[in-house]
Write a structure and sequence with these properties.
- The complex is a heterodimer of chains A (183) and B (164).
- Chain A is of the alpha+beta class and 183 residues long.
- Chain A contains 2 helices and 11 strands.
- Chain A folds into 2 domains: 8-46, no CATH class; 54-182, Umud Fragment, subunit A (Ribbon), CATH 2.10.109.
- Chain A has helices at 8-23, 27-48; strands at residues 49-53, 68-72, 86-90, 103-110, 115-119, 122-125, 128-129, 146-147, 152-156, 170-173, 177-182.
- The longest helix of chain A is centred in the N-terminal third of the chain and has 22 residues, at 27-48.
- The radius of gyration of chain A is 26 Å and the shape is elongated.
- Chain A starts with 7 loop residues before the first helix and ends with a strand.
- By secondary structure, chain B is of the alpha+beta class.
- Chain B has a single domain, classed as Nuclear Transport Factor 2, Chain: A (Roll).
- Chain B is built from 4 helices and 6 strands; from the N terminus they run H-H-H-E-E-H-E-E-E-E.
- Chain B has helices at 3-23, 27-42, 50-61, 85-98, and strands at 64-72, 80-83, 102-113, 119-130, 137-148, 151-160.
- Chain B has a 6-stranded mixed β-sheet with strand order 2-1-6-5-4-3, with helices on one face.
- In chain B, helix 3 (50-61) packs antiparallel against helix 4 (85-98).
- The termini of chain B are far apart.
- The chains are: A alpha+beta (183), B alpha+beta (164).
- The interface between A and B is medium-sized, with 24 and 20 residues.
């Protein structure tokens, strides 16, 4: 007598294969893994690494309009922001640990205590021109010098070819800096 | 007491606490709900008739105190000052007449209720989408609210320069 491969045993094997693909060999372990993964995902992307989509042209050519990036909130837990860092700046004062949904995306050019001004499009830090390799377009901005407080940073976008009046820039308090741009 | 009873008791206590908070919201929660309603009232869609526009402007003005003071100062744009609820209603009506539609949300809001529990300050990020325009409008706004006749009304609204 010749045995065929189809039959109840085969159906059982097929059912097991589907179960393994769908929920693993041990459903309880799979459930725990999925729960842990979900918690890690929420914690990382809600409080640590904030996904942001750039809207506007003030950071071109470094960050294009509609490009997608992350802001790392952990960067400045142990060290202060540095000159040249691109940072996310919240519009409303912080309240608790909640992350903002909307941020300005700007580059730090001035540190606490420094005097910052623009002369013929160049950033002057305490009267000395700042080397800015990321700044590509023509710029003719001129501003009076502002002295930063002990808790203030001067931030500006990389696209200085746009009109000064249409570009949001200036002093940002430390507690408004959410984190450093990643990627 | 057996474990199932302890768990049941804990669930009942938790549900009771949740129900109490839901039925007796604090001032901050009340203000946040109010802010959501203000955002809804400030938004409008296209193809509205005059009566609908008038009604929308009126509902927005209803959130304001009669002596409200509004100061809108956005860099690169003309400064606007409004004094009184009537001014707000007229400005809302004018906006509805000049653009096809606006969607307003307050995605980030910080609410601080003063010690007297009768006044509060709300710092908002206002996000606005004007129908037909590519870029969204983003602006920090500070609202001063006061509890008048049991309702939280806006007594002062001003734009804030986030970067000074």
């Amino acid at each position: 007598m010749i045995e065929t491969k189809s039959g109840p045993g085969q159906e059982r094997r097929s059912g097991n294969w589907l179960q393994i693909v769908a929920i693993g060999r041990n459903p309880k372990t799979t459930l725990i893994r999925a729960a842990v993964l979900a918690v890690v995902f929420v914690v990382v992307f809600k409080w640590m690494l904030l996904p942001v989509r750039v809207q506007g042209i003030s950071m071109t050519p470094t960050y294009a309009d509609h490009s997608f990036h992350f802001v790392n909130r952990l960067t400045y837990l142990w060290s202060p922001p540095k000159r040249g860092d691109v940072v996310g700046i919240r519009l409303t004062p912080p309240q608790g640990l909640s992350a903002p949904h909307i941020m300005y995306f700007k580059r730090i050019v001035g540190l606490p205590g420094e005097s910052i001004s623009f002369a013929s499009g160049r950033v002057l830090v305490d009267g000395q021109p700042l080397d800015e390799p990321y700044e590509k377009g023509p710029c003719d901005w001129n501003t009076d010098a502002v002295t930063l407080g002990a808790d203030e940073y001067f931030v500006v976008g990389d696209n200085r070819s746009m009109a000064k009046e249409e570009h949001v820039f200036g002093r940002a308090e430390r507690n408004r800096i959410v984190g450093k741009a990643l990627l | 007491m057996k474990w199932p009873r302890v768990i049941l008791l804990a669930v009942v206590v938790a549900l009771g606490a949740w129900a109490w908070v839901a039925l007796h919201p604090g001032p901050e929660r009340l203000i946040r709900r109010r802010l959501d309603k203000i955002a809804q009232a400030a938004s409008f869609g296209p193809n509205q008739g005059y009566l609908a526009k008038l009604s929308g402007a009126q509902s927005l003005a209803d959130f304001c105190a009669t002596n409200i003071d509004v100061n809108i100062d956005i860099p690169g744009r003309q400064e606007h000052r409004l004094a009184g609820r009537e001014d707000v209603q007229q400005a809302a009506l004018a906006l509805r007449a000049s653009v096809a539609g606006v969607t307003v949300t307050f995605p980030d809001a910080t609410v601080v209720v003063n010690a007297d529990k009768e006044s509060a300050v709300a710092d908002l990020t206002v996000e606005g989408h004007v129908a037909g325009e590519h870029d969204m409008i983003v602006q920090e706004v500070k609202l001063t609210l006061q509890k008048i006749d049991g309702q939280w009304l806006i007594v002062k609204a001003e734009t804030v320069r986030t970067l000074k």
